[in-house]
C-alpha cells in the first residue's frame, strides 16, 4: 500500500513538474529550460534527494511511457492534412529516409566499435535515431537494453534539436522540406516539435520522416542485427 501511494505521488509530481516546466519554457525560450531537458533533470534530482527507487517511481508512471505510442501516431493527422506536400516531394523524401536510416545505424555502431564500447551499448545505440516507441520495438529485435535505448533516444533528440538550426545556417539550408526532413530523421520527436515551431511545412515533413524512419528501422531490425553482429 505504501509503495502504491509513493508511486501515485511520483506520478502526480511528474505531471506537475512537466506542466510547470512548459509554462516556464513558453516565457523564456532557452535550451536548458526545455521540458525535455529540465524536467528529467528535476525528476532525477528528486529521486536522488528523496532516496526513491526506480521501481517505486515507475510503478504508476509507466502509463506516461505507454502514451508515447498514441502521441507519436497523432503526428499522422497533420501529415494527412498536407498530402499535397508529400506527393510533391515523395521521391526525395523516400530517398532521404532510407539514407538517413542507413547512416544513423551504421555510424552509431561503427563509432561505438571504434571506441571499444560493450556490445550491449552498440546494440542500444543502433536504434537511437528513431522516436522512443519505435526504438523500443526495434531494440527487442536488435538486442539493445530498453533503459539505455530510451536514454540514447532522448540525448539524440535534444542534441539534434539544439544544434539543428546552427547546422542549417552553416550549411545554407533554406528549404522548409529539407529542414523538416533533417529534424525528423536526426532528432525524431524533439526535432519535430522544433520543426513545427519553425513552420507548418517543416513540421509536416518532419512528422512524416520521423514515422517512416521508425517503421523502416523496426521492419529492418532483424536484418540489422544479422548484418552487424553476424559473428555473434
From TrEMBL:
Keyword Transmembrane: yes
Protein name, per record: LrgB family protein
Gene Ontology annotations for the cellular component aspect, listed alphabetically: membrane
Swiss-Prot/TrEMBL keywords: Membrane, Transmembrane, Transmembrane helix
Record InterPro entries: CidB/LrgB
First-listed, main subcellular location of the protein, grouped into a coarse class: membrane
Subcellular location field: Membrane
A Pfam family per the record: LrgB
Organism: Mixta tenebrionis
Transmembrane residue ranges: 6-24, 31-52, 64-83, 90-112, 148-169, 204-229
